Structure prediction request, 309 residues.
Amino acid sequence: MPEKMQHCKTCGQEIAKGVKKCPNCGKDQRNFFMRHKIITIILAIVVIFIIANLGNSGDSQASKTSASSHSKKATKTVQKADMEKLYTNADQFKNYKVDLYVKVFDVEQDEDGTYLQGYNNPEKLSKNTLIMSDDSNLDIKDDDIIHVVGTVKDKYDGENALGGSVSAPRIIADSIEKSDYATAFAQAQKTINVDKTQNQHGFALTLQKVELAEKETRLYVKIENKSKDEINFYDFNAKITADNKQIEPKSDLSEYPKIQSEILPGVKTEGIIVFPKIESKTAKVILEGSSENYDITINPFTFEVNLDK
Prediction:
């Protein structure tokens, strides 16, 4: 079999293929990598290292992108503007985070958890909400107002214990905290700190502050009986005069702490008196009380309040 031939890269002389050097000119016929095996091995290791790092970087970036995407998906929140939609199409917000207030009207508990039902709009007894917590020892009772942070599970359609139909979003609670009506459903738009006390014969009455909310005006009142006799205070006798009008308190004050009516010596009591919304810049608050000691007279407690502060 004839020997395969090739030409020298330098002198062009025909030589046998595979020889290391040209017999005519002595030039090495091997390529760079074959002539420098150590350098070749080092370069190969470097290339492998670079490729491996690029792969890891890509995986890391893909992992970060995936984690970021998952995080964004997991942290979608029901916005305030979408709360109405939550109560008409809760399935649209599955796995969304939600932050809301509810007035509870039904509580059930077993070894697996606590199950609550309440209104997100207690004034109209609407926006029924179902809340599930894995805390079987949750201290919540009917009429409590709670702040719930959790995740929308789905829309529930079924019947309640009385056989009535129920359509409501189901919320898996991350946290449940007790709150109050003003914080939950009638937040103050403006607060006027008065902190003035009038004392008549040991009947000490303090107007602490006035809160102006969207639909109501709230008086925070504290009374201390420093006398030796029983004193009386009835919040339905309270009045506000503003812009030549006399304003009476709201009749339903059940959502707020009530001031005790019959106050024994040494006793302190405080509460909130609620009036309709007042838009005047100034107002006179008139609070009436009396004493069981008929030898003394308790005049109306009056406070001039600047509502335009």
